[in-house]
Amino acid sequence: MAGLPVLTAAETRAAEAAAIAAGTSVTALMDRAGRAVADLAWRIAGAHYPILILCGPGNNGGDGYVAARILGERGAPVTVAALADPTTDAARAARGGWSGPVVPLAAADPAFLVIDALFGTGLTRPLSAEVEAALAIPARHRIAVDVPSGVATDDGALLGAVPRYTATLALGALKPAHLLQPAAGLCGRLFVADIGLSASASVETVVRPVLAPPSPADHKYTRGLVAVVGGAMPGAARLAASAAAHAGAGYVLLLGAGGGGLPDAVVTRPADVLPEVVADRRLGALLVGPGLGADGAAPLAAALRAAAPLVVDGDALRQVTPEALADRTAPTVLTPHDGEFAALFGALPGSKIDRARAAAARADAVVIAKGADTVIAAPDGRVRVADGASPWLSTAGTGDVLAGIVAAQLARGLAPLAAAETAVWLHGEAARRAGPAFVADALVARLPAALGAAL
Fold first, then answer.
1. What is the predicted pLDDT for the residue at 258?
2. Residue 260: is its pLDDT beyond 90?
3. Distance of alpha carbon 234 from alpha carbon 292, whole angstroms
4. Are strands 383-385 and 375-377 parallel, antiparallel or unpaired?
5. What is the architecture, at CATH level 2, of domain 9-201?
6. Which of 100, 169, 444, 452 has the least CB density, counted as fewest CB within 10 Å?
7. Where does CATH 3.40.1190.20 sit in the chain?
8. How many angstroms separate the CA atoms of 251 and 236, rounded?
9. Which CATH architecture has domain 225-452?
């Protein structure tokens, strides 16, 4: 899934229209889609297990009829359950190519594999009770064609009772619903079928970085000096500083949050030297916010004046304004979870992608909107979405670790969006290597190996 474009329903329709204008017929697109569905179904059920295909009246249903024909030709036991007669020319032609059994949706029986080809992209109305009942038919495996029926394509909202799928086959490109919660948690394993669409997109999935190891000429300052501002809860700042050190920074300085649990290589200094540190031209990146506490106005104001790249996390996100961030001339990266995002930007409209993009433009900063569906947005509108994050990241301190990784990448000279994308990937890779039920300290310990996988 790395580095793939993510298209909204409207962008998908535009890509299909462009393909048709270039000479590809709707029938050809449908045949490619249906063949991809049939290939995936064959891998799961083969010729030995009953397959039920739920077909809607539109072109998504047409994809289902094509898949039924191909599977039937291969000898698979297939039944189609139709919501209604086809309403498009291409879907009617596909229905005409299927000579096997077709039953009403309400008369469908359980099957080993159920293929959902009812609605696909663009659905905005709630599901009917009849459709909800059909989607809930007992099955060992389920495949969704393009997006699960009952899912809002552009924001991942649920429009009814949607079951959990074994796999979802995206047609032509990924859609926001494949990556945004709650829909993403129901899609199962994602596959993308190439049906001949071509489209540029400002939204892409996070890609594994390719980082350069230190050269023989490098030293601690060229590899990046990171300063972390401590506060009322020193453990958070210690985690962030340790993460920065383990994520490739050459020199990490922790201000006002000493104590145990730190590598000896992390230098600790009193909090009152912050103005001196901010003025140091060797400073590669400054991190403020982890464990800062509610009374962080003075250190936050000093951090905002820094000419070095700045990472704003945790408590600092509740004490700063978008306008103060936008006034900065140096790069800024924000790392809010949902509560911090709402405190800083209010209730913005649209999907999580829309909200992160609007926030980035308002604050003139890269925004990492954290969560099970982490979205990274740049002020120029570019967006990166992470997929497959470990659910075990939902534990205290992992956000502090992420902030430290971001600071390390900025200090190493990466551009803000690249630093954020790299950090999110390293964070996720470290979590994968840590296994289940880890604590944030264990996540830090896996960072060198995660970094090694990106070299």
1. 73
2. no
3. 8
4. antiparallel
5. 3-Layer(aba) Sandwich (3.40)
6. 452
7. 225-452
8. 18
9. 3-Layer(aba) Sandwich (3.40)
- State both tokens at 195: 């049906």
- What confidence tens digit (pLDDT) does each residue in 188-233 have? 999 999 999 998 899 999 999 999 999 999 999 999 999 999 999 9
Q: What is the pTM of this model?
A: 0.96
Q: Which two tokens stand for residue 371?
A: 């969560």
Outline which parts of the chain fall under CATH 3.40.50.10260. 9-201
231 and 292 Cβ atoms separated by less than 8 Å? yes
- The mean per-residue pLDDT over the stretch 381-399 comes to 95
Cβ neighbours for 346, distance < 8 A, ≥ 6 positions apart: none
Q: What CA dihedral angle connects 18, 23, 28 and 30, to 10 degrees?
A: 20
